[in-house]
Design goal:
Elements: H1 2-17, E1 23-28, H2 46-58, E2 61-67, H3 70-79, E3 84-88, H4 92-97, E4 98-106, E5 110-115, E6 131-135, H5 144-151, E7 154-158, H6 161-169, E8 175-179, H7 180-189, H8 191-194, E9 197-199, E10 211-217, H9 226-238, H10 241-245, E11 252-254
Parallel strand pairs: 1-2, 6-7, 6-8
Antiparallel strand pairs: 3-10, 4-10, 4-11, 5-8, 5-9
Helix pairs in contact: 2-9
Length: 275
Amino acid sequence: MKGLLLSLLLLISAVTTAQPLPVLQWCLDNYPNRHNYPAQGLPYGPTVDLMRELANRSGFELSFSPNTPFARCLKLMQDGQTDLMIRLNYSDERNSYMHLIPYVRSARAEYLYLLEQHKDIRDMAQLSGLTIGVIRGYIYNAELPNLLIKNSKNVVEIDTEDAAMTMLLYQRVDAVIAPMQTTEHVINSNPKFKNAIKIASLEFPFQHNMYVHIGLSRKSRHVALLPQLQAAINSMEQDGLIQHYYQNDAAVEPVEDKPADQPAAVVKMLKEGSD
């Protein structure tokens, strides 16, 4: 009888002291081939697998926001109304309202797009006299503005990749510098672009690659989990999981030597926005 009573007391004690896992919301949109967000059902894709593993190793439960535009997610992070974002380039402004944890390094993230009939461009000097479109809000490599100042006639900001490809198609600009993955999706999804636009051979002579980050809102109720998130990313790198999740993503490379200092913010024109 005493043994049964002791067992019951131990069971009650375990139930009352057990704490539920904290729930952190990941704010995300539909990013084809990385985190697909169907009209019905939960997000899926390699980035989703990465975030689930991160949650498991960090000791929290992952929840998903509704399909939310990227800029809106940034605002929610700033206000502390959501907890996590992924695949973020660094800017001083973002760093002011979220902790940025590097986990992959950009490879050839930005490409130069031309009309199919345009002569190929292999060297920065060939940009001389051209009007170059860039995507408003996208955070480019910090070295790009100086390269453009030295080599091109005019730089035009364009709201979206779709609008940029349209302006290129109708020769409102001579070339467009744009993020590879989202632009490739735009081109492949639109027949009028698919056979009319190509990628130039030019590789920008950047001295340093940018890093891609996971963001944790500084106003999150669970901001104390930052050390666990950092430790989990490190352990996932050591186990080869970061490389596994990004093995088919040409835009990024696994982080080997993380930057000791974050890069300075780029000039205002290329400073803040998506990616």
